[in-house]
Amino acid sequence: MKRWMVALACAAVAAVALWVTFFRASEEDRIKQTLAELATIVAVKDGDTLLSRMGRLRSRMKEVVDDDVRVHVAELNMDLRGRHKFEEDATKAGLVFQSADCTFANLSIKVDPDGTVATADGIALVTAVRGGERKVDKRDVHFLLRKDGSWKISTIDVAVPAAD
After folding, report:
1. Partners of 74 in the β-ladder
2. What element of type H or E holds 59?
3. Whole-prediction pTM value?
4. What's the pLDDT tens digit per position in 7-36?
């Protein structure tokens, strides 16, 4: 009976070690999930109203951005600080676009050795419908993230479009 208990304990330890080694999400995967969640939250959905959009932004934004987040969009001359201001300005996008989705591509993620600060650089692909016309926009983006339990975005910098 004692041998079976030892064998069972060893099997349990081996299973946990395998799970941690092969199946647990890496820090890069967690950062990508945070960025994907941000894209989902700020998307303009068909049928969004100002109230439904503001409710979604207010209830879910605190999960992915710092209270003191800084957002800089050079082309729009936007340089704001604070989650509440970001939520307010993101809500206004629903007045301009009938729908808008964002995805991030070519992400290059660097996590500091302590695992508490990371940068993510890539391309934001925004597909939006405005006045019935569909437009795809591509911008370089830079994120600074901090980890305090989970990854949260501290800074968002959106570059002007590259000249073709």
Report:
1. none
2. helix 50-60
3. 0.81
4. 565 555 655 555 445 555 799 999 999 999
3-state SS assignment for residue 81: strand
- Token pair of 21 as six digits: 């080694």
Please state the length of the chain.
Answer: 164
Here the tokens at position 103 are 């995805």
Which residue ranges form the domains of the chain, and what is each CATH number? 26-158 (3.10.450.50)
Report CA 13 to chain centroid distance, whole Å: 34
77 sits in the region (left: phi over 0; alpha: psi -120 to 50; else beta) called left
Q: What integer pLDDT is reported at residue 144 of this predicted model?
A: 98
What's 109-155 look like in SS3? EEECCCCCEEEEEEEEEEEEEECCEEEEEEEEEEEEEEEECEEEEEE
Residue pLDDT, tens place only, 139-160: 999 999 999 889 999 999 999 8
